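Figure 6 in text form: structure in, sequence out.
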C-alpha cells in the first residue's frame, strides 16, 4: 500500500522563494533523547552520498538552506543557546519551517503518572524541572513541517520496547498516532535500522528537503511508513550468498562463505537493503561479510527474531525443501563447470588446422 503523504504547505508558513511553492530555508531540530544509544547520529555522519556536511554547507544543488540542530554536531556551547530554537518551535514561534528528527524510542509517561520521567531534554524555564521527551513531542508535533523517525528505536520501539521492559517504550507513530500528519501534510517518515544505514537516512532527508522546496513530490512510503525504494526488497534478494541458498549449500558455522540460513539468518523475510548498499562507502552489509541478519530494521525486532543464531523456523523448512533441487542442480553445474573450464582441442601448436576450417569454395 502506498501512503498518500500529501503535498500541502502549512497555513501561515509563507513561501520564501518568489514564484516557488516551497521554502528556501529549513531548520532540522534533531532530538536524540529518546531511549537510544545515539548510534543513529553517529551512523549518519558516515554518509557519503550525500554527506551531512554537503547538505548543511549548501553544496547540493536545489536544496534549501539547512540549519542543523543536533547536539553532537552543534557549534554552540550547549545549554540555553542550543535549546533556543527548540523552545521557540515548541511555542509555535520557529524562525523557519522545521523538520523534527527523533532518535530513540518513546517511553510511556502515563505508567509513572507524572511522577518523574524516563528521559528528558532541557529543563522547564519556570520550575527548573526536566522536560520529558514526551512534552517535546506534544509541543513540537503540531508545528513540525515534517517528522522523521531515525533508527529502529524511534520508528518501532526497538530493543527498549521488547517484552518485559519497564518503560512501556514505543515507536514515534505509536505515540503520535499512525494517522498523524505534520504541518506540511506528511505522515511520519520512518527510516529504521539499528543503527540507520547512513545513506538510507541522508537520502530520505534529502528527498524531504527537496519536497520542502516544492521541487519533488512527497517520498513514497509503505504501510509501515518506510521509504518504498529503500525497504521494498528483502535482505535475501540482495545477498551475496543467495546463490549458495539456491544450491542448498549451507554454512555449518560462521567461518563459512556459504548461506547462513541454518546458523540464524532471517534475511529471506526481512526488508532491508544493506547487503546491496553496504555500510560505509559501499563496503559491508551484514550477511555479505559473515553476519547473520537478525531483522534489525523490522517492526517485530527484536522479539520476533530471538533467540538470535537459532535457525529461523521458516529457514529450517525452506532449507529442507530446497535440498533435492539444490543438490541435483549443484552437481549438474559442477559437471558443466568442469567442461567449460577446458579449452577446445583445436587450440594447439601442431602443423595441421583442426578447427574444422574448410578452405574450398563450394557452390
Ligand atoms: S545468508 Fe541469509 S540473506 Fe544471504 S542467502 Fe543465506 S539466508 Fe539469504
Ligand atoms: S541485513 Fe539484517 S541485521 Fe543487517 S542491517 Fe539489514 S536488517 Fe539489520
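Output sequence:
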Amino acid at each position: 500500500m502506498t501512503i498518500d503523504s500529501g503535498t500541502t504547505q502549512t497555513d501561515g508558513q509563507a513561501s520564501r522563494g518568489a514564484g516557488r511553492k516551497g521554502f528556501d530555508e529549513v531548520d532540522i531540530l534533531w532530538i536524540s533523547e529518546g531511549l537510544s544509544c545515539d548510534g543513529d547520529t553517529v551512523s549518519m555522519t558516515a554518509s557519503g552520498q550525500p554527506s551531512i556536511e554537503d547538505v548543511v554547507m549548501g553544496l547540493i544543488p536545489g536544496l534549501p538552506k539547512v540549519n542543523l540542530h543536533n547536539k553532537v554536531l552543534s557549534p554552540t556551547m550547549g545549554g540555553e543557546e542550543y535549546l533556543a530554537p527548540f523552545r521557540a518551535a515548541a511555542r509555535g514561534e520557529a524562525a523557519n519551517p522545521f523538520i523534527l528528527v527523533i532518535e530513540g524510542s518513546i517511553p510511556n509517561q502515563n505508567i509513572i503518572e507524572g511522577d518523574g520521567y524516563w528521559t528528558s531534554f532541557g529543563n522547564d524555564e519556570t520550575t527548573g524541572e526536566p522536560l520529558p521527551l514526551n512534552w517535546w513531542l506534544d509541543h513540537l508535533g503540531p508545528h513540525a513541517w515534517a517528522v522523521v523517525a531515525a533508527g529502529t528505536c524511534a520508528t518501532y520501539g526497538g530493543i527498549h520496547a521488547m517484552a518485559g521492559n519497564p518503560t512501556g517504550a514505543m515507536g514515534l507513530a505509536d505515540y503520535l498516532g499512525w494517522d498523524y500528519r505534520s504541518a506540511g501534510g506528511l505522515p511520519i517518515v520512518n527510516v529504521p535500522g539499528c543503527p540507520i544505514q547512513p545513506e538510507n537516512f541522508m537520502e530520505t532527508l534529502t528527498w524531504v528537503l527537496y519536497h520542502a522546496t516544492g521541487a519533488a513530490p512527497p517520498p513514497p512510503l509503505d504501510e509501515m511508513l518506510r521509504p518504498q525504494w529503500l525497504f521494498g526488497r528483502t535482505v535475501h534478494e540482495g545477498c551475496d550468498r543467495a546463490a549458495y541458498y539456491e544450491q542448498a549449500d549451507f554454512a555449518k558455522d560462521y567461518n563459512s562463505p556459504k548461506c547462513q540460513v541454518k546458523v540464524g539468518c532471517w534475511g529471506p523475510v526481512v526488508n532491508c537493503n544493506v547487503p546491496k548498499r553496504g555500510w560505509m562507502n559501499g563496503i559491508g552489509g551484514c550477511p555479505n561479510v559473515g553476519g547473520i541478519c537478525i531483522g534489525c530494521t523490522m517492526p517485530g525486532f527484536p522479539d520476533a527474531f530471538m533467540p538470535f543464531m537459532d535457525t529461523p523456523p521458516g529457514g529450517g523448512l525452506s532449507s529442507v525443501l530446497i535440498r533435492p533441487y539444490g543438490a541435483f542442480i549443484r552437481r549438474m553445474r559442477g559437471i558443466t563447470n568442469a567442461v567449460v573450464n577446458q579449452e577446445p582441442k583445436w587450440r594447439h601448436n601442431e602443423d595441421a588446422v583442426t578447427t574444422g576450417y574448410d578452405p574450398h569454395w563450394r557452390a
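Caption detail: Residues 323-340 form the longest helix (18 residues).
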